[in-house]
Amino acid sequence: xxxxxxxxxxxxxxxxxxxxxxxxxxxxxxxxxxxxxxxxxxxxxxxxxxxxxxxxxxxxxxxxxxxxxxxxxxxxxxxxxxxxxxxxxxxxxxxxxxxxxxxxxxxxxxxxxxxxxxxxxxxxxxxxxxxxxxxxxxxxxxxxxxxxxxxxxxxxxxxxxxxxxxxxxxxxxxxxxxxxxxxxxxxxxxxxxxxxxxxxxxxxxxxxxxxxxxxxxxxxxxxxxxxxxxxxxxxxxxxxxxxxxxxxxxxxxxxxxxxxxxxxxxxxxxxxxxxxxxxxxxxxxxxxxxxxxxxxxxxxxxxxxxxxxxxxxxxxxxxxxxxxxxxxxxxxxxxxxxxxxxxxxxxxxxxxxxxxxxxxxx
Length: 362
What we know:
By secondary structure, the protein is mainly alpha-helical. The chain has one domain. It contains 15 helices and two strands. It has helices at residues 2-6, 22-52, 64-69, 78-92, 98-124, 132-153, 178-196, 204-221, 224-230, 241-259, 268-286, 289-295, 297-316, 326-332, 337-356; strands at residues 161-163, 171-173. It has a two-stranded antiparallel ribbon with strand order 1-2. A hairpin with a 7-residue loop joins strand 1 and strand 2. Helix 4 (78-92) runs antiparallel to helix 5, helix 8 runs antiparallel to helix 10 (241-259) and helix 11 (268-286) packs across helix 12.
């Protein structure tokens, strides 16, 4: 919005020339989203607490310590992240860019699905929420619409191409299968973040690390000179997603202030589904879908731990982990919650650095 309003006046007021720079607008989005989260965080939490009463119902099949320690904590805190993210993006991004709207579609759409899920959990005091099949169908519809939109905006051969990390000049043409693959990436990322969100502060920091990484990737992929130098696929227009990712980082910082152990609020599915979907959508636009699996490797590990646990129990009657997802396994081994959280943050940083190395190692 500010780009459309102020940049055209750069000839009269030289200071408005700053709005042509993605770096400046990304910084503005970070600060705006962060300030909104800080300003509205406490009033929103108090309002949620007054409306939700007993707060988010705690699963009885999880660690028993959570039933007592986390009882009464309000959920739907992801709304705070979405508020900062949306306002920060709308203020600082070029709103003529269709990639921005496609990613916002996924983020807000998945946020609404998560909100409905959280609403049912709170009102019925049942941790099951929306039936799994319905939730998946809604996610697939939203992701499918975004995938088709992104493909229609992206030039050939990138529209149907899959880039391979560490290999230059290789683009696998998936043809009509690109849309289903994009849906898989977006929905998979969404649910992977959702599975990771089980401890105070555990999910939001890796999300911010991944968002910061993709802010850099978006900026480089959207710049033909840098993309050519690094021998990555140039995606004209994708640079604007650096602003979106910056807003996500800023909103995440503000949310972490209230979500740090012991959490004053949980992000709930309102936050986890939307943030994971956002990361998936950004990776699809920038043609770094496989790199997301490296940068977001922590989310992949958490998801795989659940798949392995379920498969092992159904096939052999035995469990591989003491409890799944993986973070609960380490809790059951005696690790304190802050220890699990901080060590997983460290893993997320290492994986992000590995993912970013694909930009140069080709």
